[in-house]
Design brief:
CATH superfamily: SGNH hydrolase
Number of helices: 13
Number of strands: 15
Strand content: 15-25%
CATH topology: Rossmann fold
Helix content: 25-40%
Structural class: alpha/beta
Strand order of the largest sheet: 6-5-7-10-11
CATH class: Alpha Beta
CATH architecture: 3-Layer(aba) Sandwich
Distance between the termini: 56 Å
Length: 410
């Protein structure tokens, strides 16, 4: 099977008593889907390199929270946007260390638990929440389209309370869990076992094309597309999802501040916002039933403004990048254009954007290429009190000043 080049998606997850599931520490194996990559989870359950628990002297730590878009298991590790931003920042004075806590399918509730129980012990100075409309929708249990179980909340009297219908998993016996984890890694290492596992989970019929590929056939790639709620709420439940999301972001902000860190939000937007072909973009808007695909960005910005959180929607810069280079930033050779997660080019564009967002807060010179300058992400002046992403409407006070972040969304 190795000679035939057949790979499979390994087992990377484990039961978690609070988040219901998490990345399994030390897991390694191949990932198949939108792309092919070899994924390695570090000893603390992060899709990242190893990090010391204690923060080195003189280091600014930035913790990234997010879902599969930021976890990016479909790409080689060093092509992830967080790693590309880290590489950008390495040429700056001082030391900024980026840590990636993103896990595929995580909702806002799971982001809170991840920061509280895992990221906080690394003493980050900055926490960047990578947000998209699909995460907003997932805050309402009935609208959550993620495949994995997630804890959920409802609003009662304006206060967050656990949803009584939130899924629950029975805690496994620790001895059984240890055996299960060992067998899961053994399965990742022995390809025929993983092929059998995936066939039993996804159905043998879907796996037959890959099996036939061993004998000279061609494997059909699966494509998935999520219709994100980027427009104004079209139902009462979607409006509730927004209200729950706002309350969860506020809770996360309070938790982050309690650990002497500051929260920022990066809005990844919807895939329809970065389609370089205007005709395809308009047809996507019609399919969504809205002509206001920037609504989610504006509403996220309003939430950030109310809470005093730094905010950056990246869709305008990504669209500029796609148009100037005639590229689809989503989709791969296994999926249709514009479908799925950000691809290699999408992450390549995101690296400098994230790096300059961090530089802006640290009062360091921006290294933005012409793309970002055209998008008005620019340095106001060398001695300015604040640096601002004018088009995005964000003004961030430096960490060294010990002041709060201020935001204004146009």
């Amino acid at each position: 099977m190795r000679a035939g080049g057949l790979k499979y998606t390994g087992s990377f997850y484990v039961y978690d008593p609070i988040r219901l599931y998490a990345l399994r520490p030390g897991a390694t194996g191949w990932v198949e889907g939108e792309g092919e990559s070899y994924m390695a989870i570090n000893s603390d359950g992060m899709h990242d390199r190893e990090h010391t628990l204690g923060k080195p002297s003189g280091t600014v730590r930035v913790a990234f929270m997010g879902d599969s878009e930021t976890n990016a298991e479909h790409l080689p590790f060093d092509e992830n946007m967080v790693q590309l931003a880290q590489k950008e920042l390495q040429r700056d004075p001082g030391h900024v260390e980026l840590l990636n806590f993103a896990v595929g399918g995580y909702t806002l509730a799971e982001q809170i638990y991840t920061f509280r129980d895992h990221a906080a012990k690394y003493q980050p100075d900055i926490v960047i929440l990578m947000l998209s409309p699909v995460i907003i929708r997932a805050s309402k249990r009935e609208l959550n389209t993620f495949e994995s179980p997630s804890p959920s909340f409802i609003l009662r009297g304006g206060h967050l309370v656990p949803d009584p219908l939130s899924p629950a998993l029975r805690a496994p016996d620790p001895r059984w869990l240890a055996v299960r984890n060992h067998l899961a890694q053994l399965q990742n290492d022995i390809r025929v076992l993983a092929l059998i596992r995936e066939a039993t989970q996804t159905g043998l019929r879907q796996k037959l094309p890959q099996i036939r590929a061993l004998f000279g056939g061609s494997a059909a790639a699966a494509a998935s597309q999520t219709n994100c709620p980027c427009g104004p709420p079209s139902s009462e439940k979607m409006e509730e999802a927004w209200q729950i999301s706002a309350a969860l972001i506020e809770r996360l902000n309070e938790t982050v501040q309690a650990h002497n860190a500051r929260l920022w939000i990066v809005s990844l937007g919807d895939g329809s916002q970065i389609i370089p072909n205007p005709e395809v973009r308009r047809s996507t808007e019609r399919r969504y039933g809205t002509t206001d695909i920037e609504y989610a960005d504006r509403r996220m910005g309003a939430i950030a403004t109310r809470l005093g959180i730094g905010f950056l929607p990246v869709a305008p810069a990504l669209l500029d990048y796609a148009v100037q280079r005639h590229l689809a930033l989503r989709g791969s050779d296994r999926t249709p254009p514009y479908v799925g997660h950000l691809n290699r080019e999408g992450h390549r564009a995101m690296g400098p954007i994230l790096a300059d967002f961090i530089r802006a807060a640290l009062h360091q010179p921006l290294h933005a290429p012409a793309l970002l300058q055209n998008s008005n992400l620019r340095e106001i002046s060398a001695d300015a009190k604040d640096r601002s992403a004018e088009r995005y409407g964000v003004a961030i006070s430096p960490i060294a000043a010990g002041t709060n972040f201020t935001t204004e969304y146009n």
